[in-house]
Design a protein that fits this description.
Number of domains of chain C: 2
Radius of gyration of chain A: 23 Å
Low-confidence stretches of chain C: 1-39
Largest sheet of chain A: 2 strands, antiparallel
Number of strands of chain C: 12
Shape of chain C: globular
CATH superfamily of the largest domain in chain C: Periplasmic binding protein-like II
Mean pLDDT of chain A: 88
Order of helices and strands of chain A: HHHHHHHHHHHEEHH
Shape of chain A: globular
CATH topology of the largest domain in chain C: D-Maltodextrin-Binding Protein, domain 2
Number of helices of chain A: 13
Mean pLDDT of chain C: 89
Structural class of chain A: mainly alpha
CATH architecture of chain A: Orthogonal Bundle
Chains: A mainly alpha, B mainly alpha, C alpha/beta
Distance between the termini of chain C: 55 Å
Strand content of chain A: under 5%
Strand content of chain C: 5-15%
Oligomer: heterotrimer
Helix content of chain C: 40-55%
Number of domains of chain A: 1
CATH class of the largest domain in chain C: Alpha Beta
CATH architecture of the largest domain in chain C: 3-Layer(aba) Sandwich
Strand order of the largest sheet of chain A: 1-2
Chain lengths: 276, 312, 480
């Protein structure tokens, strides 16, 4: 009896999984269908798979204002720069919160954590206005700095947890040997912090790559990112379904791969220190 | 000399590390860059918004005029804003609630010993890695009653009579919206709870089984309490993100049908960046921030009570 | 007219004489500043910058014409294209910051009321024959209704429409206190597309004749439209009569204002005296008819109350409907083996399809206004528009439509589309000229969408919208 329930459970699980994955499967399937049978119902299963949609998307033969490959490049630059910035300022900040004692420490920590609550929909308004006045609209910094700000609370939280996991004796030993704090951080803590840095970098990358509101409001053509570009496959003339799903697949693929592979690390940083 | 001495002393009696003088300055130095960025993106915008909320800001150049509390009155007396606020609360409550339940179920499932558990987990996590904009777009297409696959297959399998026009009626539009959020974020909750489940020591469970506890009692009295910190983390993180939701709603329903799925974040975008009524948007934004700070304080309390994360 | 390789147009003696007289004449009427602008053509810039849209305004047409432009004028034209929302924000931002970067800006009609002080009026330059080339410009060749709706505004009273729509006379325009703010380039109007193959099938024709008693043909009136749409509505075969764009968006307002005009109302919805004329017996009849098509006769596919332009295009393209109404040519999916014919939007008491046009304008902060104006003139010129037909431009000149209608390749690809579009533009109806049209638009589309979904009855919905619009007009300072 127990065996049958076990088997039934397994079958049920895989069926549920199929249902869950269905939208993604549809997306990838449609991207390799010739675009004029994409929306046919009953769904056309007998077709020759084609990479034409991907080619069109990457070379720009679509309704979009630029080749999607350029938008992917913009996304990559913004994501890489933001992640670098977040880590560069996040590691020292996390160290200070983890190791040092100073006045208003708890308040500072709580404040930093609470900034995660600040809705982008609110901060986009002043940023939009000032970017306009300072002629920074549609430039890289106007995305990179806000994205770093969005990622920082979580990055600092995760790194702080990871740093606390490092035995303090190692640092004490280094300090006794005469290392300054900064050198200590750079030469001792950071190498040991690598797993945490990877997790924080992944989190920051996911947030930046997928971000939509700020990119929608603050970019036009010079720095337009992939999520905003996905919308452009729909114009008053109709929607280019094959190309749209191809662009979507290409946008989703890198983050998806990273999430699947590094899923445990992603969560580990958020749950350290959870248990009382 | 001191180094050798330090190493000879057993760890148990090792001296506590002496804090060098000026730690405060060092700490602030290390924190400064991060604080500057965060201040620039939170306090500075808030100050601007407070100022702008008392003005009628004209973006096309003729300057701004002071209008006192008019923007606030306009915003607070607008019934559609009231509805958006209620909709936002409803959305967060429903989405997070369902995600916690389903996430727990999924985590329990994935903590079993199955041969292909690794593959299974990796696959279940897929929705988490898809950009919300993309998933909203895909859902919108699949839900189209004329050429979307969902209605087509449900009809073909006899589960549905006439095609359901999901996005045309408020109730079904809400179902679609919550469904999208649940689809996207349940894996996230599940991963956190799974980490919790995998960290539960086996002694309490074994002891309970020996004492004759049924699986349900085992779960309720042993597993669940031990999972509390993780549930707290999942709840707090998801609630925060849920309040900020914009992209998926914008793409899936754009606040429709009518204004039944209009969340506050959509109102903000519309008033500020489509109507260019910056004063009113600022007033709305300040009100939203005030409400959120109350929510955030509560959430931080939840975290503090249930976990060790905020401890020094 | 031959062109020398230096790029500057050559003047015949006659033209030089007219130019001299013209300059002297304008010099006596116009104030000093304008005189200075018209009497001397400054040095030619090496480059001009143009801000343009993407598919909506057929940017491919401009891109195609760039080499010819370079050849003729010796000026490099730098083109920036972006999608609608970005374009609007960018255009407004540039103009608000008084940037001189873009010399030529593409402007959509609803944006103009707010921009009459930021866009350069070109009436004087058009009257200056040293700057204009009569053959290229041939201002009478533009479709009058399109020209007046798109380009002619009163600077200090931007809500006024030019009364009448006969001949285009810049002098008369100037004397009446109006100005010309650009030249129209891409004109979109609502047209009907229908499945020519279905309408030509003998079986269908016989069935129609038997049932209705009249021959099957594209409907000429709205009553016929309802009948024909019902005839083709066969849900079990996944075929419906027509698409409608009843989703919550600008497209719903456009559907409604078209019907409003056809039913005898004022398709502008709000008139120049700021009266909410859409809330009238004709408005209620129009909206009731629309709702009847959707809810009672059910001639539209499911999902219509969330449909927009692209939904309608997809539905028709995948063969779900026998007719469709949209603003461009349609294409059928590979698995739908059919052909497309076009017809004017039916009338009730009159024709009144919605139309909206893009215009090329000169930035008033540009430092190359005269050359920008000449570029604008060239891109909207007779030859240019004729050539742009190959990228499916929707031209704004009668001569272009004459060419398009007779061109065999175009007919082969798009059937009688251009013929129908040209005729539709002659009778089209534009929008009210309000700086907060976006808000007014929204109030109306909410009413249309609510009625279409059955969340409200047409009359109360329109009444509520009228109240909201009245409030908006007051807020914008048009009424007190």
């Amino acid at each position: 009896m127990k065996r049958i329930t076990a088997i039934l459970l397994r079958v049920a699980v895989w069926m549920v999984l199929l249902g869950v994955l269905f939208p993604i499967l549809w997306m990838v399937l449609t991207s390799i269908k010739p675009t004029d049978v994409s929306q046919a119902l009953p769904p056309v299963w007998d077709f020759t798979p084609t990479l034409a949609n991907y080619v069109n998307v990457l070379t720009g033969h679509t309704y979009t204002s630029q080749a999607f490959s350029i938008l992917l490049l913009h996304s990559a630059v913004v994501t890489a720069a933001c992640t670098l910035l977040a880590l560069t300022v996040g590691v020292p900040a996390a160290y200070a919160l983890a190791r040092l004692r100073f006045r208003a420490k708890r308040a500072t920590a709580m404040w930093i954590l609470s900034t995660i609550m600040f809705p982008p929909a609110v901060s986009v308004i002043p940023v939009f206005i000032f970017a306009g006045r300072l002629h920074l609209m549609d430039t890289y910094p106007v995305l990179i700095i806000p994205y770093a700000a969005f990622a920082l609370p979580m990055v600092i939280w995760m790194l702080r947890s990871y740093i606390k996991q490092i035995p303090i004796e190692i640092e004490e030993a280094a300090m006794v040997d005469g290392a300054s704090r900064l050198a200590l951080i750079r030469r001792v803590v950071v190498p040991l912090l690598m797993p945490g840095i990877v997790a924080a970098a992944l989190l920051s990358a996911i947030l930046s790559w997928n971000e939509f509101l700020f990119a929608l409001a603050l970019t036009r053509s010079n720095v337009e990112t992939a999520p905003v570009g996905i919308n452009e496959f729909t114009s008053m003339y109709g929607t280019q379904w094959g190309e749209l799903t191809a662009a979507a697949t290409v946008t989703v693929a890198p983050i998806l791969a990273m999430t699947m592979i590094l899923r445990r690390r992603l969560v580990a940083g958020l749950t350290f220190g959870a248990v009382k | 000399m001191a180094a050798i001495a330090a190493r000879l002393v057993p760890t148990k009696f090792a001296r506590r590390p002496r804090r060098p003088i000026g730690t405060g300055a060092l700490a602030w130095g290390l924190l400064a860059p991060a604080l500057v960025i965060l201040l620039a993106m939170t306090i500075a915008p808030t100050m601007y918004l407070v100022g702008a909320s008392f003005q009628h800001v004209n973006l096309l150049g003729t300057g701004s005029t002071f209008v006192g509390f008019r923007n606030y009155l306009e915003v607070l007396s607008d019934p559609s804003i009231g509805w958006s606020a209620a909709a936002t609360l409803l959305f967060v409550a429903l989405a997070v609630g369902i995600e916690l339940l389903l996430g727990l179920a999924l985590a329990l499932l994935l903590s079993r010993k199955m041969r292909e558990i690794n593959l299974l987990t990796a696959l279940f996590v897929v929705p988490l890695g898809v950009a919300p904009v993309v998933s909203a777009l895909v859902f919108r297409v699949l839900l189209n009653p004329a050429y979307g696959w969902l209605d087509w297959y449900l009809q073909s399998w006899g589960l549905m009579g006439n095609p359901v026009d999901w996005l045309s009626q408020p109730v079904t539009a809400w179902i679609a919206l919550i469904g999208l959020d649940v689809w996207q974020w349940t894996p996230f909750v599940a991963l956190i709870l799974l980490a919790g489940l995998q960290g539960i020591p086996s002694e309490p469970k074994e002891a309970a089984v020996v004492d004759g506890a049924s699986p349900i009692a085992l779960f309720w009295y042993v597993t669940l309490p031990l999972l509390r910190p993780f549930i707290a983390i999942a709840l707090v993180l998801r609630a925060i993100e849920a309040f900020k939701t914009f992209g998926s709603v914008w793409i899936l329903t754009a606040g429709g049908p009518g204004t039944s799925t209009e969340l506050i974040t959509l109102d903000l975008y519309r008033v500020a960046l489509q109507d260019f009524n910056v004063g009113a948007a600022a007033a709305l934004g300040i009100c939203f921030l005030l409400c959120l700070s109350v929510v955030m304080t509560e959430l931080l309390n939840v975290l503090g009570r249930n976990t060790d994360i905020l401890e020094d | 007219m031959t062109r020398k390789t230096t790029g500057r147009p050559q003047l015949t003696r006659r033209q030089a004489l007219i130019s001299a007289v013209g300059t002297a004449a304008t010099a006596t009427i116009l104030p000093d500043g304008a005189r200075a602008a018209t009497s001397a053509i400054p040095a030619k810039p090496a480059r001009l910058n143009m801000l343009y849209a993407t598919v909506e305004a057929d940017s491919d047409a401009i891109k195609l014409a760039l080499p010819d432009f370079q050849r003729e004028f010796g000026i490099a034209l730098h083109l920036d294209t972006m999608p609608y929302d970005s374009l609007q924000q960018k255009a407004f931002a540039e103009l608000a910051s008084q940037s001189s970067y873009y010399d030529i800006i593409l402007v959509d009609t609803p944006w103009m009321p707010a921009l009459t002080r930021k866009i350069q009026p070109i009436t004087d330059m058009l009257l200056d024959s040293s700057l204009t080339n009569a053959t290229t410009l041939d201002i009478q060749d533009f479709i009058p209704k399109v020209f007046f709706d798109t380009c002619v505004y009163k600077t200090d009273a931007s809500y006024l429409h030019w009364p009448g729509a006969e001949t285009i006379d810049p002098r008369a325009i100037k004397q009446a206190g109006f100005e010309i703010y650009g030249l129209p380039i891409q004109a979109n109007a609502l047209t009907v597309a229908y499945r020519h193959d279905l309408f030509s099938q003998p079986a269908e024709q016989q069935a129609y004749k038997a049932k209705i008693g009249k021959p099957l043909s594209p409907p000429g009136t709205w009553d016929e439209f309802a009948v024909t749409a019902s005839f083709f509505t066969r849900p079990s075969k996944r075929l419906w009569g027509t698409t409608l764009m009843a989703g919550a968006g600008d497209w719903a307002t456009d559907d409604f204002k078209t019907l409003l005009a056809c039913f005898g109302g004022d398709g502008h919805m709000v008139n120049d005296k700021f009266e909410t004329v859409f809330n009238s017996p004709q408005g209620v009849s129009a909206l009731s008819f629309y709702v009847e098509l959707i809810r009672k006769l059910k001639v539209v596919p499911p999902g219509t109350t969330a449909a927009s332009w692209d939904t309608a295009a997809t539905e028709f393209g995948t063969g779900l409907t026998a007719m469709s109404m949209n603003y461009h040519t349609e294409t059928l999916s590979g698995n739908v083996h059919g052909s497309i014919g076009y017809a004017m939007v039916p009338k009730k008491v009159q024709h009144g399809p919605h139309f909206g046009t893009w215009m090329l304008s000169v930035n008033s902060y540009s430092t190359n206004k005269q050359w920008a104006m000449q570029a604008v003139q060239w891109f909207t010129g007779k030859d240019a528009q004729a050539k742009m037909l190959t990228t499916q431009l929707h031209p704004t000149r009668r001569s272009a439509y004459a060419i398009a209608t007779q061109d065999q390749t175009l007919a082969g690809k798009f059937g009688n589309f251009y013929d129908v579009l040209g005729k539709s533009l002659e009778v089209g109806v534009g929008r009210p000229r309000l700086t907060n049209y976006a808000d007014v638009d929204r109030a109306i589309w909410v009413a249309v969408n609510d009625a279409a979904r059955g969340a409200a009855e047409p009359a109360p919905a329109l009444h509520r919208a009228a109240g909201e619009v009245a409030r908006l007009l007051k807020q914008a300072g048009y009424t007190h």
